[in-house]
Amino acid sequence: MPLRPFCGPTCVLTRTDAAQRATRAALASTSVLILFLAACATDPSRLVPESPSEAQIAALRARADRGDHTSQTALAVAILDARIPGPLEEAHRWLREASASGDMHAQVALARLLEAGDRLELDLDQAHTLYRRAAKSGSAEAAYRLGLMHESGRGVDAHNGDALRWYRQAAERGHVEARALAGMMFLQGRGSPVRPMRGYRWIRQAAEEGSTSAQNTLGVLYEHGAIGDPDPGEAVAWYRRAATSGGVLAQHNLGLAYMNGKGVEQDHAQAAHWFELAAAAGHAPSQNKLGALLASGLGVAQDYDEAFQWFERAASQGSAAAQFNLGWFYETGRGVVPDLGQARHWYELSAAQGDGKARRALEALSRGS
What we know:
Serine Threonine Protein Phosphatase 5, Tetratricopeptide repeat; mainly alpha; 20 helices
């Protein structure tokens, strides 16, 4: 079945500026240990048990003092991860020493700290330099991070060609998420001519290797017919696979499938379940959908108070739909004391984003005043 060129910059899969900011924030707050282990060819956590004894810690420190770079890096990461007591300055010192000696794992861990800017002063230039050094030494994680920086323009000029080059390098070294992102760039023709078959193959491989983002993307491709005729059932299968592994976007999409009866029998209770999981993770569209189900009593007991809370959370993140719903709740006194001033405020925010219902609600308020 022939593949169709995938959609352009307004496609549901395109990473918006807001999504990129959220992604960067999540990456910056993720455990340094987890990120470091993902970069390592050999798992250094074997050097540091979950609850190391004093003798084990002393032995590790002794090896680090003798200049063993693997021990220096493992010790630093264990301190940062609070498995070994010690000041942050000690962890930074060990990482800098191992990094200066060319240890690519230390370079990646130190670059992550410099990129996050929470435990060390933000220094994107130095982070980029360290990633390049580590990538040159063969680090797939460093190549992936360079791809992220070049795609988003964080610390460097945004350049799709450079981003794709780094993603491909990371993917060729086995990095699953890099493979998924490169596949999307092939599909959308960013950094490369549109190559739908190659993009599909890369995304499919990443999905089969366990990437929840790739699994969700594959679901969207099947749902919207970007890889042949639409196949809602296959889309739901991939959404479910990602959603059960914690993929927030997939949880939302699975909720939509249940709400609309697309690819699965309509079930508002199941829709509410999946929306609630994504909403709890901070996903504004899911928060709004959950609020709507609570307001209508579909699949859940009707609860205006709880609906108001979810609308408020989503509206505060900029969801135009939630801003309209929150304005309507203030206007009608559902879940809150009626307040036409607040209603107007939220309608105006929603209307500024192009919501037609909000514009009409503002006109009605004006006629009634």
